[in-house]
Amino acid sequence: MMHEPERSIGNLLSNLPCKSKVVGALDWHREAGNVRAAGGQLLTLWGADDRDRDGSFRIFAAYLLDDGIEVLEHAMGNGITPTYPSLAELFPCALHMERAVYDLLGIASMEPDHRGWLRHGGWPRSEFPLRRDFDASRQFAIDSQPYPFVQVEGDGVHEIAVGPVHAGTIEPGHFRFSVVGEKVLRLEERLGYTHKGVSKRFEQMQQAEGHRLAARLSGDSAVAFSWAYCAALEAITHTGCPPRAANLRALALEHERLANHLGDLGALGNDAGFAFGLTQFSRMKEDLLRLNVAAFGARYLLDFVQPGGVATELPEDTPRLLLDHYLVLEERVSGLRVIYDNHAGLQDRFREAGTLSRESAVKLGAVGLAGRASGVPLDLRVHHPWPPYDRMKPKLVMQSTGDVAARVYQRFDEVFESLRLCRMILENSVAGPIQADCPLAEPDRLGLGLIESWRGPVIIALESGPGGTIRRCHAHDSSWQNWPLIEYAILSNIVPDFPLINKSFNLSYSGHDG
Amino acid sequence: MINTLSRMIRTGILTETFPAPASASPAMDRLQKDMRNILGRALCIRHVDAGSCNGCELEIHALNNPYYNIEGIGMKFVASPRHADLLLVTGPVTANMEEALKRTLDAMPDPKLVVAVGDCGACGGVFGKSYASRGAVANVIPVQRTVAGCPPSPVAILEAIRSAVIEA
Question: Can you give the CATH number for the domain in which B61 is found?
Answer without folding.
Answer: 3.40.50.12280
